[in-house]
Amino acid sequence: MKTVVVGLSGGVDSSVAAYLLKKQGYNVIGLFMKNWHDDSVTISDECPWLDDSNDAMLVAEKLEIPFQTVDLSEEYKERIVDYMFREYEQGRTPNPDVLCNREIKFDVFLKIALSLGADFVATGHYCRKAEVNSNSNTPIYRLLSGRDKTKDQSYFLCQLSQEQLAKTLFPISELTKPEVRNIAQELNLVTADKKDSQGLCFIGKVRLPDFLQQQLRPKSGDIVAIPSTFESYNQTLPVFNTKEERLEFESKKIMYKKEDGLVIGTHQGAHFFTKGQRKGLAVGGTKEPLFIIDTDVVENIIYVGEGKNHPGLLRNTLFVPNDDLHWVRPDLSLNPNEELDVMARIRYRQPLEEATLFKSNKGLYVSFKNPQTAITEGQFVAWYSNYELVGSGVIS
User: Fold this and answer.
1) Distance between CA 113 and CA 230 in Å, rounded?
2) Quick one: CATH architecture of 3-212?
3) C-beta contacts of 245-254 below 8 A and 24+ residues apart
4) pLDDT, tens digit, 9 for 90 and up, residues 209-258
5) pLDDT digits (tens, 9 = 90+) for 349-387
6) 3-212 matches 217-396 in fold
7) Residues 154, 146: contact at Cβ < 8 Å?
8) Known catalytic residues?
9) Beta carbons of 216 and 88 less than 8 angstroms apart
10) pLDDT at residue 138, as a whole number
11) H helices of 217-323, where?
12) What's residue 388's pLDDT?
C-alpha cells in the first residue's frame, strides 16, 4: 500500500483530498504546517493558524487518519517573509504564494513527508498532473490546468520541477469547487462550509502595509501625476537590426523624473505601493481614477496616471533573465534565437493571453499580442501550451 502525506491546511479542499485518497486505498497521513505568524498584523477572526490547525485535526479524526503538526516557521520566515521584505524594499512586488509552494510545500514539506516514509505528498490544489509518453526510462510529467477553470491554481505551481511533480498528487483535480463542497457536506466535515482562506500563504488575511511596516519604515514622499501625452509614450521608434534589439527596447520600462509630471499629493513610502494599484493614494479631484504606473524607491516617488487605459500602465513585452527562468518541462526549453507561440498570464486569475517567447543568450522575452496592464517586476509570468503549464519566470 502506497503512503501519501496530505498537507491538511484546515480548509475544505485539502480535507476532501485526504478523503478521496483514503477512498482510493492509499495509506493517508495528515500533516498541518505551522508557518510564520504574527498576531499583530493578522485579522484574528479570519484564518488564524490555531483555528486552522484545530479544523485539520478534526478532519483527520473524522477520516480516521493519523495527524501531526509540524513547525516550519523558521524556514518560512527565512525563505518567504525575509524575501518579501527585501523585494518590497527594492521596489519590486513578490508573489509569496508561488514562493510558498516552491520553497515550503514542495520542498521542506515534501522532504519531511519522504522522511516519514511517504511515497507521495498531496495538496488540495485545483490542477492536474499527467505523464508524457517518453522513449526514456524517466517519465516526463505535465502540469495541467484544473477542470474547474474558475479555480485553476496551476499558476501558483509554476515553479515546480519534474522531481517535485513526480512525488505529488492532486486528488481534487477533476472536481469543481461546488462538487468538493458537496462531498465535504455529505461527510459532515467541519470544513464543509468554511470560507476560502485569503491573504498571504499560510499566514492569513494580512494588512499588507502593517506587515511591511514591521521592517520598512514610513517615509514621506511625493505623488507625481504623469500626463497621457508624455513624450516618451509617442516617441519615434529607432531602426532595429535584429529582433532581439526590438524586444529589448520594448521590454524596458520608462524611467520617469519628478519634472515629467505634476506633484498632486504625498505618500508614506514608495516601497508600500505597487504598479497598477488604485486604492490607498488618498488623492481625489480627478475625472478618472488614478493608477500607479511606477514607483521609485530611491527617490521615494510614486508616479500615477489617470484612467485604466493610461499608456504608462500598458506594455506588450517583458523580460526574464536566465537566472530567473524555469521550465516545468525542460524538454521543451528554447535555445538562443528560438521562439515559441504560447498562451501566458502575468497574474493569477488573469485570462490566458496570446504571446510569443523568444530566447536570447541573456534570457527570455515574452511578447504579448495585446498590451498588458501593470507588468510588475518581481511577479511571475507563466506560459502554457494547450492548457499545460510548461514554464515560468520572474519578471525583471
Assistant:
1) 55
2) 3-Layer(aba) Sandwich (3.40)
3) 247/317, 247/319, 247/358, 247/360, 247/365, 247/367, 248/319, 248/365, 250/315, 250/316, 250/317, 250/367, 251/315, 251/317, 251/318, 251/319, 251/365, 253/294, 253/315, 253/377, 254/294, 254/312
4) 666 766 788 899 999 999 999 999 988 889 999 999 999 999 999 999 99
5) 899 999 999 999 999 999 999 999 999 999 999 999 999
6) no
7) yes
8) 100, 201
9) yes
10) 85
11) 243-251
12) 97
Q: Which cell numbers hold the place of 320?
A: 526574464
Calculate what percentage of the chain has a pLDDT beyond 70: 92
Instruction: Give the right CATH number for 217-396 from 1.10.443.10, 3.40.50.720, 3.40.50.1980, 2.40.30.10.
Output: 2.40.30.10
User: Residue 249's closest CA among 367, 340, 395, 370?
Assistant: 367
C-alpha cell at 227: 500626463
* pLDDT for 44: 41
- Cell output for 27: 495509506
- Nearest CA among 326, 17, 328, 344 for reference residue 143: 328
Residues β-bridged to residue 204: 200
Per-residue burial over 174-189, b = 16 or more CB atoms within 10 Å of its CB, e = otherwise: ebbbeebbebbeebeb
Q: What is the mean pLDDT of residues 85-103?
A: 91
- Cell numbers given for 110: 515534501
Q: What is the pLDDT of residue 360?
A: 98
**Predicted local distance difference test score (pLDDT) of residue 224:** 98
- The cell 515553479 sits on which residue? 159
β-partners of residue 130 are 142
Domain spans in the chain, listed from the N-terminal domain onward: 3-212, 217-396
Q: What is the pLDDT of residues 292-312, one digit of tens each?
A: 999 999 999 999 999 999 999
Grid coordinates belonging to 60: 483527520
Q: Which residue has the cell 499527467?
A: 130
